[in-house]
Write a structure and sequence with these properties.
The structure is a single chain. The protein is an alpha+beta fold. The protein folds into three domains: 50-86 and 184-305 and 552-574, Penicillin-binding protein 2a (Domain 2) (Alpha-Beta Complex), CATH 3.90.1310.10; 89-183, no CATH class; 309-373 and 385-545 and 583-687, Beta-lactamase (3-Layer(aba) Sandwich). It contains 26 helices and 20 strands. The strands form six sheets. Strands 2, 3, 6, 7, 12 and 17 form a six-stranded mixed β-sheet that branches. Strand 10 (276-283) and strand 11 form a beta hairpin. Helix 3 (91-107) packs across helix 6 (166-182) and helix 17 (448-454) runs parallel beside helix 23.
């Protein structure tokens, strides 16, 4: 197909028009370029030399931790942070500026960044870890044989610190070291002080011209609103360490706050939120000329716990008060009671309403760095150890319901079977019943309910002998004993169920005597209080398996609530937990279960019951069991029970270390039951009755 002349002419015209347009546009661009580079070039170059833009981290508000009613236990408010940017000053001017800033901070009681591992008077390294010191010297290009004093003067020379006062020089050096470790520029700040006081903030702001490069930024301040309440649940926060920062540089900067233990650690990724960016314009001298938010910060999620603050408070008080009472002879006898734990659990849902470990600590002290003296005090008293989930104890007589159920369900006894306690069991190492030790005779004929009520060792020796250790182990595991509950806290102990496997691991034979000891909660049996709380809850709810939990929900800044499944998946990944698919409902005969529970009711409500004196006048019917377990020279006391008897709501497990009688621990439970069921002070006082000195508690 060929084009005619008219088409050719038309195309040529179009081409000429397009060429002309391109030519004109090119001319315009050249003119603009000339104007920018030649006419106004000098003006723009001068502006670029006198104007700087820097970015500042806009820290996100950390999420709150709330109790089940929405009451904040850990809250966040906005405070101030002091940052320092690089300006065009020499080392001497910088050092003088740093010293002036430090003097203001110290005057107002503010702590500043100090990660320098050298102390003076006398000279020494702050770390006792030789490998750490060696690596530190290598990183800072210092001879590995250099002493702490040598290192000090090497850095003093490096930073051109002129002061002859070593304490003054040390202060300046701390900030200079912070700068060297984290770097700073005209656009990147180094954090000097977090949680800056209002007094320091005002004084530094007023003298801003004297301190070029400083920037006072608002930031969230963490506050434990109820002091030591639920300290072992909540856990601690603190400045991030270098080893914690590795691999997280996109999320954290040096001196950021990070969760260290407890809920603060487990839910750190959700509590933290996402930082924003504040863009700041300033002149070459460091004076701010304008600022705006380049990226909004996103607040962290709130974590809502299952605990009730009121129940938690009375639980901690009851535990502490009764331990002091036991240790000072406030009951019929005195012992060296010094520690313990309590778990209060909803028997139907597995929600923990309160969990206490004594002694406790003040988590607020860790926020800005705890003193060495206070940390040593806490460490010596094992106050940081959460006995409720990490402490493992022989359960003693509170284990006897497991033995009873194993015997009933396997058919070696029934609810009407009686066993004659003659005092001395005739097999193995001829163990005796506690009653024989005290009174020189046995309990006589008892059925299973009576045996629980009187805590008869002989009865359970015989049942244990009949069923054997393998059946006993099986039923213990049905209740979740010897397995983690997977509660949302780190460092939960697994516990141990007595078994042949344990003997095999030690390359020895399992003997009948071990079975007898295991049947009354001794031998290898060692469980955590939280495991025992699950076990008692399952007894109370008819054998239904429950998922133990401390977290009710997590709510993000947009109001989205995480599902239970989402929370479990998050926690399992964080703590490297595996869901226990073996957990299932325990199909116990209702007649057998009734016999067990009647025995537990007899403990608290019938004369001769081992906790009768504590609960005989109590307005709520309680089912319970006391227990003692001797480990070496130490005897631990237990109480485990639930209420109300007819329609159970809560289970309480108490353990106290170094007690003479397990029954003393029942007093702790009584105070908690009273708070939970709303008994007034007069009702509690009327139910109080001192434990008679002649009564032997088991």
């Amino acid at each position: 197909m060929s084009l005619d002349n008219s088409d050719i002419k038309s195309n040529r015209i179009k081409y000429n028009i397009i060429s002309m347009c391109v030519y004109i546009i090119g001319i315009i661009l050249l003119v603009q370029l000339f104007n920018l580079q030649i006419v106004k070039g000098q003006e723009y170059r001068e502006q670029s030399n006198t104007r700087l833009t820097r970015e500042s981290v806009l820290k996100a508000a950390r999420g709150n931790i709330l109790d089940r009613t929405g009451n904040p236990i850990v809250s966040n408010s906005m405070g101030f942070r002091l940052d320092l940017y690089k300006t065009k000053v020499d080392n001497q001017t910088l050092n003088d500026t740093i010293l002036k800033i430090i003097n203001i901070l110290e005057k107002n009681g503010d702590k500043y960044a100090d990660n320098l591992p050298i102390k003076v008077q006398p000279f020494a390294f702050t770390s006792q870890d030789d490998e750490y010191v060696k690596n530190w010297k290598k990183k800072n290009k210092i001879d590995e044989n250099a002493s702490a004093e040598d290192c000090f003067y090497i850095l003093k020379k490096k930073y051109e610190i002129q002061s002859d006062d070593i304490n003054e020089a040390r202060k300046i050096m701390a900030i200079r070291y912070e700068i060297s470790q984290n770097g700073y520029s005209s656009t990147k700040a180094v954090e000097i002080c977090s949680n800056l006081s209002r007094a320091s903030s005002l004084e530094l702001s007023e003298k801003n011209t004297d301190f070029a490069g400083i920037d006072i930024v608002t930031e969230p301040i963490i506050s434990y609103t109820s002091g030591s309440l639920a300290s072992h649940i909540l856990g601690t926060v603190g400045k991030i360490k270098q080893e914690e920062l590795n691999g997280k540089e996109d999320t954290y900067t040096m001196n950021d706050i990070i969760g260290k233990t407890g809920i603060q650690y487990v839910f750190e990724d959700l509590l933290k939120g996402k930082n924003g960016i504040r863009q700041i314009d300033m002149d070459i001298e460091g004076t701010v000329t304008g600022e705006y938010i380049a990226k909004e910060a996103i607040a962290g999620s709130d974590v809502v716990l299952t605990i009730d603050s009121n129940v938690q408070a009375i639980t901690e008080k009851a535990l502490k008060d009764n331990i002091i009472k036991i240790s000072t002879g406030g009951f019929s006898s005195r012992s060296d009671a010094d520690a313990g734990a309590v778990v209060v659990m909803n028997v139907k849902t597995g929600e923990i309403l309160a969990m206490a470990s004594y002694p406790d600590y003040e988590p607020q002290l860790f926020v800005n760095g705890i003193s060495n003296e206070k940390y040593e005090e806490y460490s010596k008293g094992s106050a940081l150890f959460n006995r409720a989930i990490s402490g493992t104890y022989a359960p003693g007589s509170i284990f006897k319901m497991v033995t009873a159920i194993a015997g009933l369900e396997s058919g070696v006894i029934n609810t009407k079977t009686t066993i004659n306690d003659t005092g001395v069991y005739p097999y193995a190492h001829r163990p005796v019943c506690w009653y024989y030790t005290e009174y020189g005779r046995g309990h006589g004929y008892l059925n299973v309910s009576q045996a629980i009520k009187h805590s008869c060792n002989y009865f359970f020796y015989e049942v244990g002998n009949r069923i054997g250790i393998d059946t006993l182990e099986k039923y213990a595991k049905y209740f979740g004993l010897g397995k983690k509950t997977n509660v949302e806290l780190p460092s939960e102990a697994t516990g141990v169920v007595a078994s042949r496997k344990r003997a095999d691991e030690e390359n020895r034979t399992w003997y009948l005597g071990e079975t007898l000891s295991a049947s009354i909660g001794q031998s290898y049996n060692n469980f955590t209080p939280i495991q025992m709380a699950k076990y008692i809850s399952m007894l109370a709810n008819g054998g239904k398996n429950i998922d133990v939990t401390l977290v009710k929900t997590v709510i993000d800044s947009n109001g989205y609530q995480m599902s239970k499944q989402e929370i479990d998946e998050y926690v399992n990944k964080k703590l490297n937990l595996k869901s226990d698919e073996e957990n299932s409902n325990l199909n116990i005969s209702q007649d057998n279960l009734k016999a067990i529970l009647e025995g537990m009711k007899g403990v608290t409500s019938e004369s001769g019951g081992t906790a009768y004196s504590t609960f005989s006048k109590f307005n709520v019917e309680v089912a319970g069991k006391t227990g003692t377990a001797q480990v070496g020279n130490k005897t631990n006391g237990w109480f485990a029970g639930f209420a109300p008897y007819d329609d159970p709501e809560i289970a309480i497990v108490v353990v106290v270390e170094n007690v003479t009688h397990g029954g003393y621990t029942a007093e702790v439970a009584k105070d908690i039951f009273a708070e939970y069921f709303g008994m007034n002070a007069e009702e509690i006082e009327e139910s109080q009755e001192a434990i008679p000195s002649v009564q032997v508690i088991r």
